[in-house]
# Entry
Amino acid sequence: MEAQLKQGRYEYIYAVKNETTGEPDEVSLEGSSSNTENEYLILVYHKNIQFKYDELVGVRKLSNVGQ
# Structure
């Protein structure tokens, strides 16, 4: 299966049908996002027009672990 998607941000959830109520239940699959560890690596580049290359000028690693 393939799908062409536009560039950008997409938000979605997975859910299962509760056999008793018939309602969707996303917590049983996804859990609580407050307990999820997230790490981010931020890379900042400068485009050098004179020398025609991109230069890495900054790196930062962020995490919500221990917050």
In short: The helical segments are 27-30. Residues 37 and 43 are 20 Å apart (CA to CA). The chain has one helix and four strands.
